Structures are given as structure tokens and as C-alpha cells.
Amino acid sequence: MRGLSSWRAREARSGLLLVAPGLLLLSAFLALPVVASLLLSLTDFDLYAVGDPSNARVVGLRNYARLLHDPVFWKALGNTFFFVVVGGPLTVSLALGTALLLNHKLVRFPGLFRTIYFAPVVTTLVAVAAVWKYLYHPRFGLLNAALGLFGVGAIDWLGDPHWAMPAIVLMAAWKNFGASMIIFVAGLKAIPESLYEAARLDGAGPWQRFRLITVPLLAPTFLFVGLTTTIGYFQLFAEPYVMSGGDGGPMNATLSVALFMYKQGFRWWSIGASASIAFVLFAVILGATLLQRRLQKGGEA
Amino acid sequence: MKRKTLSTIAVHAALVAGSIVTLAPLLWMVSASFMSSGEANTSPPPLLPGRATLDQYRELFVRLDLGRSFLNSALLATCAALLSVVVNAAAGYAFAKLRFPARGPLFSGLLAAMVIPGQVAMLPVFLLLRSMGLVNSYAGVILPGVASIFGIFLVRQYAASVPDELLDAARIDGAGELRIFWSIVLPLCRPILVTLGVLTFLGTWNDFMWPLIVLTDDTKWTLTVALASLSGEHVQDTELMMAGAVVTVLPALLLFLALQRSYIDGITAGGLKE
Amino acid sequence: MRALAAGLLLAAATACTRGGDRDRPRAALGLRARGEVVRELVPELERRHPGLKVEVQQIPWTAAHEKLLTGFVGREMPDVAQMGNTWIPEMAALDAIEPLDARVAASASVRPDDYYPGIWETNVLDGALYGIPWYVDTRLVFYRSDLLAAAGVLGMPRSWSGWREAMVAVKRTGGPGRFGLLLPTNEWAQPVTLAVAAGAELLSDGGRHGAFAAPEFRRAAEFFIGLYRDGLAPPLANSQVANLYQQMAAGEFAMYVTGPWNLGEFRRRLPASLQGSWATAPLPAPDGMPWPGVSLAGGSSLVVFRSSPRKDAAWKVVEFLSEPATQKRFWALCGDLPARRSAWDEPALAGDGRTASFRLQLEHVRATPKVPEWEQIAAKVWERLEPVARGAKGLDESLARLDADVETILEKRRWLLDRKAAGARK
């Protein structure tokens, strides 16, 4: 008996020892900073306070109130929602479409195609954003040249405030759809072939088989992909940062909430204001996550 | 049979068309990097260099010293991958196999923390690094990202399949828990650890924002930061920028091609077993 | 004896614009980047001061502002730095840089009267001197004389109305692919330069409030906006200009308001056949005001950091880089215009008409408001004017909003000033 309990104690000790480095790092670089951020968001900590902390004031919710009255913030929030609402479904449907094609029984070299479609995912964003910047050039860009073949007039992709965000959406969809595609492929593979066979014997056509077997069995994968894409897309930052030279222009058309936060914090050192933006973003993501979880539950019920 | 052939052709046509569109930006990047200065900015845009030249690459490595940033990136990404594998494997294994106080609550806490956007923590992390004297150091770039909730999950799922009997047998033989972790669990979990390592390596290699903020000294810059600073000063030099993009993207692509299986398995594991 | 080590941090940044000089490549210069040039000058400095060792760090201008601040917050500061002179108020507010009056008074080589007064003034805050001008920078008109001549305009006009007529003429004769002037929409320096020429104060009451709805600023903004509205300038951000020099050579723009870094670029990048067909001229003045129009006092200064344990060594670096002989060499190596007037007797500088325009313009420059928030305010200026330039918003509404934005930005400054005043009364 004594042996067992000392064994248990040893196991507990080792368990704590093994999780300790990870948990310590996570507390230091995640938990603690989040709490600190929350406190900072209630102050006007800024450039002057960096030089002399007595120049900081506790301002309560003023940073949040100011945000609500700041048209630039609303613009950034609107842009971010646009990116999520347009870019998310575009990315997910591209991913699903290619996954279904790849999963087609007749496809030769599925591995090759999978690699090709996945390649953009592992590329370096800063580098491919530079590439896309040139592709989007109104006069020398390949994209307008290609569109010109179909008689489409030159579009000033990144310069025209109406096109700048769609341009970012397009690039992000190109860059990201491969990751979701891979997950869809795995999800499709997990559906037993026998189910399709049985349905075929029952006389179900391709469309019916898709609707009655693929759709319901792929639903959990679909929701997972949707959730991660949404969360990731709400944090849009690097794409507009690189494409607009750090400004989020033209006319703030590509300013995302995260980029706005970065500018406030690291460019102007309005640290308090920056922290309040971070928490609004956090709240928005949390809300979206809960909403999607609820939809998921509703779907399962 | 005729119908089957037709749909085979249709499916492949769609796949090939999709591949061309997907690869076009990357192919153009490579092509433009071999053009001579000013060539890409003509109308209509040329697809191939008139006469391929290595001038842009020479400029990058000889004059702009991009080689140094390249080595920095490689060093940082390797260190980050190794550290991350050890730290997350330890935690993942412990959560999967060892009973210790507060295991359940801790794990639920991690689950909940997954929705926190990284940006929330950024500024305080920077201030923390300052108080630790780690601003402008490689440790400052790597440390905040070493422990990863996703990584812990990944290992935990995999480690759960390690048979308990094997661990118990080792215990009966008198092996200590750390020893068991090091010489039994780690080798058994090798596939997922490779995945985690590749993911972390690529994540660090491709990361831009954090090294931009932390590293002050240009001799310490990573490739992405150097490239972004180039794009500020050389926005006119399309061909040079494309060469820089190739140098940055190529290692990531090659690593992916070499370790494609583990990489993709990792992503799918994260996706499916939730 | 431990050798002295002074680190020289070099922000390869121009003075008056951040995010402004996208058209400024470094490597293709043929002339070399400042960091490299300074590294080249270091041996001479170390030879003169045995025991002094200088380590040169370079940061690119795109991230220079962020980097200086992260450096300060992260306590990673060098001993000496080059800094755009518009950043000096910010660094002084942080108490990061050292007043230099006593050192200048004791110095045999740094002589205030040898500097352009408008530029020197940018380094003075509340009577204290915080930086020594290193190289100077201002904006004036670069133009294709052949295109102007083809439009019947002989010589650069001296008034705004003449300037505008010249653009109209260029547009008329040049057809739809040609614009009179390139005026990138995302550079605050463009409208602010015009505003300074029109006599706008920009901020009022000692930098407590915005003065953007004032008649002077409005006059400049109206002129500026009118250029886009009437199709005389293309509403392009400079990130949209793929290759400025190719497009300039192709005759897409006849004029461009820009700074001295483009002297070397135009020489190198415009084809040989056009080398006789471009010129520079001081800014035209608003009608009824004396020519040349006042421009921005840009440039870069050398500062010494408070945190430096080696301030005497740091000052030696400043003195060395400020010597007329060093300045001449520096100009020859990288093309930055010397801050010291006595360096301008260099024949290559004095004899060149294009440079002479700068010399004249530099006698007519004014500083932007010396408040730490200026960079942030400046960013708002183009943020608010850009929609007007694109025809999306009205001018009066935007100026009123700009003032309101600035009012919020300066709230902290007003509070600090009031607190200080209250403290002084006690």
C-alpha cells in the first residue's frame, strides 16, 4: 500500500514538473500580459508616462468611450467584419471545392495536386504580400493584364478605396484555403466508402449521395474549419500591414482592428488606448465563437 | 464508360486550372527575380525575363547582406522548434498520462485561453521583455512563443495512444518519470513531435511582427524583417524585391516538401480530433 | 584602460516625412547609404581620437520611428544618433536626449552662425538646444523643363496662380496621360508644405489646439484639393507609383514637389537624353506673398542620449560629423546636403544650378510645430484630407474634424501643461 501511494506522489510530482515549464511560460507571456493589458486599458498610459509614470492617469472606461466615438475605429471594425464575412466563406468554399475535387475517385496524382494547393499556406506572408502588391499594380500588374484579356478595364486594386479590401480578401483566400482544404480532405476520407456503396445500391444519385451522406458527416469538420477561419480572420493584421506600407490605406480602407491597435500602441505609444482596442477585439472574437458554438449545438440538436 | 472518361477529363481540367491559378503568383515571383532592373515594370507585363540574370541575387547577398538575416532566421527557427518540442511534449504527455493535482482545471483553462487573440498580450509582453532585459535579443523573439496551447493539445492527443502497460513496466523496472518521458515517450511520439517541430520552425521562419518589434539591431534581423525594410526602400525595384521574396519563401517551401507528410498530418490531427 | 565605445545609431530616415519618401531607394543609389558612409568615416575619427571606438548601427527609415521608441522603452539606446528633426520634441519629452547648449558654447568647431537659421531653430525647444543639424532637407519643385516649354511655360512660375496655370497648360498640351504635378495623396508633407507657405500656424496657443480651420490653412488646402479636383494632379498614393523615374521620363508628370534625395536619383535614373531637360526651382509663393514660398525645415540632426555613459565621447562624434570637411565628404559620398553653409562653397555644390535652388529655398524654411504629438497629428492631416482629395468629403467639414481630432490628441499635453503651470504658481 505504501508503495502505491508513494508511486502516486511521485507521479504527481513528475506531472507537475513536466507541465511546469509550459505553464510558467504561458502564464508569463499570456495570462499575466492579458491581465496587465486589461488594467492598462483603464489608464491613459502613453508616451509621457513611458518617460515618467506619474504622467499616467486612471481614466476608467474613457478609452472605450472614445473608441465608440472614433470613426476610424468603426471603419476598422467594419473592414474587419467585411474581411471575415466575405473572406471567410470565400476561403472555406474554395477549400471545400478543391477538397471535393481531390477526393474524386477518378483523380490521378491527388498527392501532387494537394501539394500544389497547399503550397501558398507555407509561404512567408511578408514575401508573398510583396509579390501580390506587384500583381495588383494597375498598369504593370499581371492581374489586370489577365483581366484585360477578358475585356475588363484596369482596376486600381490597392489604390482605389473600394477595391483595396477585396484585394486583401483575394490574397488571403489564396494564401489560406489550402490549410482548410487539407482538413476537409481528411474529413472526407474518414467517411466510410461502404456508406456510399449502400446508398448507390438503394438507387441514390450523386447529388443525393452528396446531400444525404457527405453533408451531414462532414458537418463537424465544416464547423471546425469555419470557427478557426473566423477566429483567425478577425485577427487580420499582417496582410494589410504589408500591402499598405503599415498605414491601412488608402483612406483607411484596409485598416483592420488589429492594425489600428498596432498603430496606436507601437507607433503613437497610446498604450492605454491600444489595450482597449485589444479588448474590444477580444470581445468580438469571443462573441463570434460563442455564436458559432451555439449554432453548432443547435445544428446537432 | 464514355461518361466516366468525360468526368475524368472535367475533374482534371478543373484541378489543373486551379493549380495554374494557385501557382501563378509564385511562378511569376521566380521569373521576375531573374529579370534585369526595370524589366518587370513594362506594359504588357512580361512573363519571362528577356535574358535571365542573377544580378538581383548578387545585389541581395553581396551588397545588402541578406545572407546574415538568412542565417539569423535559420538559427531562430531551429532553436524555437527544438525548445517548443521539448516544452510542449513534456506538458502534453503529462496532461495525457500523469495524474497530478488540478490537472482537469488547468486543462480547461488552457482550452478557454485558446480564444484569446495574441494581440491582446503584445504590449505587456514587450514591457515584460524589457524588464527582463530581453529586448533586442534572440531569446526575446523565441521565448514568448515557445509554449503553445495548440502544441500541448497536439502532443496530448498523440501521447494518449501510448500504452499504459509500457509505462508501468518501465516504472516497475525502477525507471524515474523523467527518464520514462525522455527515453520511452519521446521516441514513441516522434511523428507528432516532427509535426510540431516543422510547424514551429515554419511559424518562426515566417513570423514578422514579433521580430520586427523586438529586434532593434539590424545585424540581428530575421529575413522577414529585412525583407519588409527592403520593401520600404526598394519599392521601385520590383525585380530585387522578388529575388528577396524567393530567398524567403524557398526554404519554407523546400522544408514543407521534404516533411510534407508530418506537416499535413499535424494540421489534420488538430482539425479532426477535437 | 577600457576603450571608449560610442555606438552610433543611424536612422537612415529623412527628416520631415515618415511614410513620405517611398520613392527613395537605397541600394540602387550608386551613392551609398548613410550607415555605410559613416562606417567609412569612422577610421578617420578613431585615428584622431585614440581610444575612441565607434560602432555604427543602421536602422531603415521605414521603421525608424517605431524603432527609436521601442529602443527607448526597451532601454536599448545608443550613445549618439541621427534623428529626423521633427522627432526631437518627442525624444525631449521623454527626457531621452541631452541639451547641448553648454557643449556648443565650449566647442571650437560647431558654430551656430554657420547653419541655416530655420533649420537650426528646429532643434531648439523652450530655449534649449537638443540637436546639431547634420544634413538638411526641404522640399521644392523638380520639373521637366522641356514639358513646360512645350506647354509654352518658360521657367518655373513664382506665384501659386502662375503655377496652376502652368499645370493647366501642361495638361492641355500633353493630353490625357499627362499630369501637371505629382502630389502623392498619402504624404502629409505635401499639404503641410503648402500650408506653411501660406503662413498657417498649424497649432495655436503654444501647441494646445489645432488651427487647421484657420484661413491660412484653408487657403492652402483649397489650392491643394483643387489640383486633384481639376485633374491637374493624379490622386495617387506614392505606393501606387510603380516606378516614379520611368513615369517621370515617360512624361506622365511634369512637376513633382520633393526633396534633395531626388537630385541623385533623377541624375541616375532618368535616361541620358533627358538629363538636360529637368531642373529644380524654389517653391512658388501664394499670390501676394514674397517669393520664394516658405517650405518645411527638414533634415536630420545629431543627438546625444541622456542614458549614455560616454557623453564626452559621443560629443566628439557629433563634432567630427559636423566639421565642414566631413560634411563635404559626406555629401560627395551619399548626396545629402550639408547643414553647414561653409560646406556649400564646395565647387560641385556651389556651381550646380539644381542645388542652388535648394540653397535659396533653405534660407526660407520653417519648422513644423514642436510638440511630441506632431507625427500623430501629421498622420491625421492626410487621413482627413485624402477623402477630400478623392472627392468623397467636403473641405470645411474635414478641417473641422481635423481640429477635433487634434483637440483629442493634445488633451494630454494640455493637462500636463496646466499641471506644470499650477505647480509653478505654488
Description:
The complex is a heterotrimer of chains A (301), B (274) and C (426). Chain A has 301 residues and is mostly helical. Chain A has 2 domains: 2-28; 72-300, MetI-like fold (Orthogonal Bundle), CATH 1.10.3720. Chain A has 13 helices and no strands. In chain A, helix 8 (161-189) crosses helix 10 (206-234). The two termini of chain B are 41 Å apart. The mean pLDDT of chain B is 87. Helices cover 75% and strands 0% of the residues of chain B. Chain C has 426 residues and is an alpha/beta fold. Chain C folds into 2 domains: 4-137 and 297-362, Periplasmic binding protein-like II (D-Maltodextrin-Binding Protein, domain 2, 3-Layer(aba) Sandwich), CATH 3.40.190; 140-294, 3-Layer(aba) Sandwich (D-Maltodextrin-Binding Protein, domain 2). The longest helix of chain C has 16 residues, at 374-389. Chain C is globular. The chains are: A mainly alpha (301), B mainly alpha (274), C alpha/beta (426). Chains A and B meet through helix 1, helix 4, helix 5, helix 6 and helix 7 of A and helix 1, helix 3, helix 4, helix 5 and helix 6 of B.
Pick out its properties.
heterotrimer, A: 301 residues, mainly alpha, MetI-like fold, C: 426 residues, alpha/beta, D-Maltodextrin-Binding Protein, domain 2, 2 domains, 6-stranded mixed sheet, 43% helix, 16% strand
* Count of the separate structural domains of chain B: 1
CATH superfamily of chain B: MetI-like
Radius of gyration of chain C: 22 Å
Report the oligomer: heterotrimer
Text of the CATH class of the largest domain in chain C: Alpha Beta
Tell me the CATH architecture of chain B.
Orthogonal Bundle
**C-alpha end-to-end distance of chain B:** 41 Å
Helix content of chain C: 40-55%
Shape of chain C: globular
Number of domains of chain C: 2
Radius of gyration of chain B: 23 Å
Strand content of chain C: 15-25%
Q: Find the structural class of chain B using helix and strand composition.
A: mainly alpha
The CATH topology label of chain B is: MetI-like fold
Largest interface: A-B, 99 and 97 residues
Which structural class should the secondary elements of chain C be placed in? Answer: alpha/beta
CATH-assigned fold name of the largest domain in chain C: D-Maltodextrin-Binding Protein, domain 2
CATH domain class of chain B: Mainly Alpha
